Amino acid sequence: MTDDTTEIVVSRILNAPVETVWRLWTDPELVTEWWGPQDYTSPSASIDLREGGSYVFSMQAPDEQGGAESFTGGVYTRIVPLERLEFTQSITDADGEPLPPDQLPEGFTQGIRTSVEFAAIGGLTELTITERGWSRSLMSVFAYAGMHQSLDKLTTDVLRGITALEG
After folding, report:
1. What is the predicted pLDDT for the residue at 72?
2. What is the pLDDT of residue 164?
3. Which residues pair with 14 in a beta bridge?
4. Are 100 and 108 in contact (CB under 8 A)?
5. Dihedral, CA atoms, 14, 17, 19, 24, nearest 10 degrees?
6. Can you name the residues that pair with 73 across neighbouring β-strands?
7. 51: how many CB neighbours lie within 10 A of its CB?
8. Residues 14, 163: contact at Cβ < 8 Å?
9. How far apart are CA 55 and CA 59, in angstroms?
10. pLDDT value at position 92?
């Protein structure tokens, strides 16, 4: 971290076991159910879940915001099953290639170092997401809000449905 960068930390206690929450982060079909901020959809996700493997998640804006599809992708750098995911995060094209600086929103930082920690607390899961290396800009504020909105979708829609199926 430098004076020009910041980190984003989001933590939630989820009413589901670690195994379920892990699947929500590692099963591409489940990722498409919650990825992206409020009113956005995720038409596709691909995951090569191994250290050195890559992922690409799509995100589509609602029609009233132009309906554009964008992609987030990166490489898994560390995987401890049911405990921790570490990966890079960038805006990419549909194939997962990071976009060049002239195609990025102002203030957007590529190559964010992200960790997602899964901790069992009884039958619940404490989920902690840390994103390191954001430039101190409006984009880091949007990223923080977007992650909260994504987790809102995960907990109110997807997790409720999965828990009902497993129960």
Report:
1. 96
2. 55
3. 125
4. no
5. -30
6. 56, 90
7. 11
8. no
9. 13
10. 97
Residues lower than pLDDT 70 in the chain: 1-3, 157-158, 160-167
Angle between helix 18-26 and 159-166 (nearest 10): 130
pLDDT given for residue 155 in this prediction: 86
pTM of the complete model beyond 0.85: yes
User: Which tokens belong to 147?
Assistant: 């992650």
Predicted confidence at residue 6, as pLDDT, reads 85
Segment 72-96, tens digit of pLDDT = 999 999 999 999 999 999 999 999 9
Please state, in angstroms and as integers, the Cα–Cα distance from residue 40 to each residue in 22, 99, 111, following that order: 22, 21, 23
DSSP for the chain reads --TTEEEEEEEEEESS-HHHHHHHHH-HHHHTTT-SSTT-B---EEE--STT-EEEEEEE--GGGT--EEEEEEEEEEEETTTEEEEEEEEE-TTSPBPPGGGSPTT--SSEEEEEEEEEETTEEEEEEEEEEEESSHHHHHHHHHHHHHHHHIIIIIHHHHHHHH-
Q: In what order do the strands lie in the sheet with 45-47?
A: 5-14, 124-135, 112-121, 84-92, 69-80, 54-60, 45-47
Residues whose CB is less than 8 angstroms from the CB of residue 20 and which lie 6 or more positions away in sequence, other chains included:
125, 159, 162, 163, 166
